[in-house]
Amino acid sequence: MGINLLEIFWIKTLTFTFNEVLFNIKSMSVFNLNEQNTNLDKKIVAGLERISQVFKILLWEKSKKLSLSPIQIQILIFINYHAKSQATVSYLAREFDVSKPTISDTIKTLEQKKYIHKIMDNVDARSYSIELTDLGKTIVSDTENFINPLTEIISKSTIDDKIVLWKNISGMISQLNKMKIITIQRTCYNCKYFSSQNNKSFCGLLQQELKDEDIRIDCGEFIQM
Ligand code: SF4
Predict the structure, then answer these.
(1) 55 within domain boundaries
(2) 85-142 pLDDT, tens digit each
(3) Which atom number of ligand 1 is nearest to the Cα of residue 215?
């Protein structure tokens, strides 16, 4: 059975539409260099992607030297600076967006290396929180400087540039959290003490106005709204 003219017309139309959609999808990609280099939005996203690679590279370099995995280093640093209530398997799994078994395995290894010890829960015998040993604290002070190259670059910017950068970063994090891409956020924007009126932000706990540079993304006093 042959193809009639109408069928040829539809095949051509659909093929053309499909190719056009494919072209548009390709041309919308941040990774398409023609698109990226002529579109500032996409150039910024590509730049952020490049910076995220830097964090991974710096952390990997440090972890190789100390025979620790990146997640092991991140957990040790996190525990050192956060409350005991946040040093649990469930909380760490949500914080680092990994499964509970992954966190449990990491904790087991860190315990074997004598960097942490468990504090069993008096009420629930299956639950525990984690505390650093003195050796664990030494590892933290040896590793937490992995981020220094970026700190040095930012320290050279003007205060006005830093405030603009911070305003954009904190706003972006807040939006990513609303989109449920970033899960746990201890930021002012999600805090029950935060209020905003006439474009001015305020912390009810500290009883002070929060300027752009005062907005926190990880506050020890944070309470979920
Ligand atoms: S308690 Fe902390 S997170 Fe909450 S509004 Fe005040 S400064 Fe921000």
Answers:
(1) no
(2) 999 999 999 999 999 999 999 999 999 999 999 999 888 878 899 999 999 999 999 9
(3) 8
Domain with 203, as residue range(s), is 158-214
Q: Which atom of ligand 1 is nearest to the CA of 192?
A: 4
Q: Which residues line ligand 1 (CB under 6 A)?
A: 188, 191, 193-194, 203, 205-206, 216, 219, 221-222
Render pLDDT for 40-81 as a digit per residue (tens, 0 to 9). Answer: 999 999 999 999 999 999 999 999 988 999 999 999 999 999
Can you say how many angstroms the Cα of residue 222 is from the centroid of all Cα atoms in its chain? 18
The minimum-distance atom of ligand 1 relative to the CA of 187 is 3
Q: What's residue 14's pLDDT?
A: 47
Number of separate domains in the chain: 2
Q: How far apart are CA 78 and CA 99, in angstroms?
A: 17
Substitution site in 174, 187, 193, 210 for ligand 1 pocket (most atoms within 8 Å of beta carbon):
193
Residues 80 and 140 in one domain: yes
CATH of the domain at 103: 1.10.10.10
Residue 22 has pLDDT above 50, yes or no: no
State whether 80 and 126 are in the same domain: yes
φ, ψ for residue 47, nearest 5 deg: -65, -40
Q: Whose CA is nearest to atom 6 of ligand 1?
A: 203
The verdict on residue 19 lying in a domain is: no
Overall residue count recorded for the chain in this entry: 225
Ligand 1 centroid – CA 141 distance (Å): 27
Separation CA 53–CA 64 (nearest Å): 16
Would you call 98 helix, strand, or coil by DSSP? coil
